[in-house]
Specification:
Length: about 190
């Protein structure tokens, strides 16, 4: 029995280290609905169930990656817009309830790519302006992600409340597929 409890404690502590990346996509303006498509194994993809209004719920989707470890992994998801227009792609970490003392879950992003159905600019985060800001990405002015270098690539560390976003043109009934390259960035000591 004692061995079982020790094993259970080890499994629980390891799974507590594994966090998710989150990508929110919203149709901008008009009546565009987003129909969830396919997602990589172990991922979550749906219209947000916590949005009470069924019309508003259909105007956005959210993607949650599989649990992340310390190695880079790719994940993909797709959806179909109901009309031509712009969408906002927002990348971040797993949601946490800061108001109730929840700690942030940090995620590294190495790449975001619209593989089909649109074009995202600077998805590898390599382009910066004269002030050192990432080109074509918007962020909160007061709570910015951390930009760093790893093995010659630019990576971005963020949590849910300091995500980044970009707008992309899409076409009616044309599948949009997005790929992210991500890994856990929350140290074990932050649990």
């Amino acid at each position: 029995m004692k061995k079982l409890l020790v094993l259970l404690a080890m499994v629980t502590s390891v799974s507590a280290l594994a966090y998710h990346a989150r990508v929110d996509v919203a149709g901008l303006g008009g009546e565009m609905e987003l129909v969830p498509g396919k997602a990589s194994k172990g991922c979550g993809l749906s219209n947000p169930g916590w949005v009470k209004d069924p019309i508003k719920r259909k105007k956005s989707i959210y993607f949650a990656s599989p649990k992340l470890g310390q190695d880079w992994q790719e994940a993909e998801f797709s959806f179909t817009p109901s009309q031509d227009g712009k969408i906002r792609i927002r990348i971040g970490g797993q949601w946490h309830n800061a108001a109730k003392g929840g700690k942030p879950y940090y995620v590294f992003y190495k790449e975001v790519e619209v593989v089909e159905g649109g074009s995202l600019v600077n998805g590898d985060f390599s382009q910066k302006d004269a002030a050192g800001e990432l080109v074509n990405w918007s962020t909160s002015k007061s709570n910015k992600p951390v930009v760093a270098e790893e093995e010659g690539a630019t990576i971005v560390k963020m949590e849910y409340n300091n995500g980044m976003w970009q707008e992309v043109e899409v076409k009616k009934d044309q599948v949009v597929k997005i790929k992210v390259v991500i890994k856990n960035a929350t140290p074990a000591t932050d649990n």
